[in-house]
């Protein structure tokens, strides 16, 4: 038995808020004044968990919950105030966009620079340089200073370097969310390869959509404490329910949640329609939309469309039936994602459900490769 790759036992982390002074006499140093000791705020409180070699753990929670602080402890950027934390082997971390990059250096030079920061030798960097560039997908910009890169290009190159380190533990923050769908798919496959090679992966994200694809287990942080730990789908559902309860109680202005969702048939013939029935509770005023996404089993988006919410009763209850399609897909296994989304400011998913389904039949696939057109007809029901 080799033991866990990551073991966290009763970890606390305090940060000081600064020095508080009450009056002028107390601002004067020496015998005339007295300095008030800085107040300490716990960013993490009694956090404990472990991850075995080849295992994955996703971490979710609202802003300020302590997620990034925990990753910085694991990446050895900072030390815990008390408690013990043990990480076995080499750690490859990507916890901030462009970490290890110098803005005035080119992409080529920064690969060597960031590789050295992550513990790669120059011979290893030279050996894997072509793989790194191919993975990042920006070969035409490797001789351009990275200060001219977009955030997506920085994320691509930063993750490409980190993903090619011979790491025992991979620590990844939200930075992958800035990549496009194809790059995210490539990154998730790379994380799967690293796990299969025995690396432990810790993944922090606000993208609840992707959590269950990345990790079978999730912990939820709130106020620096672990408030939930279990199978990813269950933890995400409870987290979203808690957010909705906060909205209903009046602590936030608006929100929405599904009360019931079901896909009437899990198998359809190519060219037929998927039928989905649902009910939802809507609180407050916002620009709500229903979004529908068809994806492959490994979460590559094939098609996306949206529909307006139908009218509901005075208590905000909505009952709906959706006919999606005709679905022109080649025979195989797919997944339908169904979300309640607010587009009033930045897109915000309030609730979502997903259903696996199978397409059968010998009908020719008339859609273009990798893309599918969807039509959705939505109507209110009594």
Please sum up the structure shown.
The protein has helices at 24-27, 67-74, 107-117, 122-136, 151-163, 181-196, 208-214, 232-248, and strands at 6-16, 40-51, 56-60, 82-87, 91-94, 169-172, 200-204, 217-222, 225-231, 255-263, 267-269, 274-283, 288-296, 301-308, 317-324, 332-342, 348-360, 376-380. With 382 residues, the chain is of the alpha/beta class. A six-stranded mixed beta sheet has the order 5-6-7-3-8-9, with helices on both faces. Strands 11-17-16-13-14 form a five-stranded mixed beta sheet, covered by helices on one side. A four-stranded antiparallel beta sheet has the order 10-12-15-18.
Structural commentary:
The protein is of the alpha/beta class and 382 residues long. It has two domains: 52-231, P-loop containing nucleotide triphosphate hydrolases (Rossmann fold, 3-Layer(aba) Sandwich), CATH 3.40.50; 254-380, Coagulation Factor XIII, Chain A, domain 1. The protein contains eight helices and 18 strands. The chain has helices at residues 24-27, 67-74, 107-117, 122-136, 151-163, 181-196, 208-214, 232-248; strands at residues 6-16, 40-51, 56-60, 82-87, 91-94, 169-172, 200-204, 217-222, 225-231, 255-263, 267-269, 274-283, 288-296, 301-308, 317-324, 332-342, 348-360, 376-380. A six-stranded mixed sheet has the order 5-6-7-3-8-9, with helices on both faces. The protein has a five-stranded mixed sheet with strand order 11-17-16-13-14, with helices on one face. α3 (107-117) packs across α5 (151-163), α4 (122-136) packs across α5 (151-163) and α5 packs parallel to α6. The longest helix has 17 residues, at 232-248. Residues 367-371 have low confidence and may be disordered.
């Amino acid at each position: 038995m080799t033991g866990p790759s990551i073991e966290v036992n009763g970890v606390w982390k305090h940060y000081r808020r600064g020095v508080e002074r009450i009056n002028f006499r107390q601002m004067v140093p020496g015998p005339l004044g007295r300095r008030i000791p800085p107040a300490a705020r716990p960013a993490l409180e009694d956090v404990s968990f472990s991850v075995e070699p080849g295992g994955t753990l996703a971490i979710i929670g609202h802003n300020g919950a302590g997620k990034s602080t925990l990753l910085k402890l694991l990446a050895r950027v900072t030390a815990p105030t008390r408690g013990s934390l043990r990480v076995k082997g080499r750690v490859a971390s990507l916890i901030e966009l462009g970490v290890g990059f110098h803005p005035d250096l080119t992409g080529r030079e920064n690969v060597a620079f960031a590789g050295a920061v992550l513990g790669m030798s120059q011979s290893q960097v030279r050996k894997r340089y072509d793989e790194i560039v191919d993975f990042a997908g920006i070969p035409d910009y490797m001789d351009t200073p990275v200060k001219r890169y977009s955030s997506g290009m920085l994320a691509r190159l930063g993750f490409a370097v980190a993903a090619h380190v011979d790491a025992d533990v991979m620590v990844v923050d939200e930075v992958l969310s800035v990549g496009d769908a194809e790059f995210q798919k490539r990154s998730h496959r790379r994380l799967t390869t690293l796990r299969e090679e025995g690396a432990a992966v810790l993944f922090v994200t606000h993208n609840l959509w992707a959590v269950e694809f990345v990790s079978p287990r999730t912990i939820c942080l709130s106020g620096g404490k672990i408030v939930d730990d279990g199978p990813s789908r269950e933890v995400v559902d409870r987290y979203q329910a808690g957010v909705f309860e906060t909205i209903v109680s009046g602590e936030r202005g608006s929100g929405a949640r599904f009360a019931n969702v079901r896909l009437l048939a899990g198998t359809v013939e190519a060219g037929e329609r998927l039928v989905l029935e649902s009910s939802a509770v809507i609180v407050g005023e916002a620009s709500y939309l229903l979004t529908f996404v068809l994806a492959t089993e490994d979460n590559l988006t094939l098609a996306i469309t949206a529909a307006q919410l139908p009218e509901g009763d005075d208590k905000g209850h909505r009952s709906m039936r959706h006919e999606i399609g005709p679905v022109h897909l080649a025979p195989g296994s797919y997944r339908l994602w169904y979300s309640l989304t607010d587009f009033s400011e930045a897109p915000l998913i309030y609730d979502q459900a997903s259903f696996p389904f199978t397409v059968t039949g010998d009908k020719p696939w008339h859609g273009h490769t990798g893309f599918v057109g969807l039509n959705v007809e939505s109507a209110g029901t009594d």
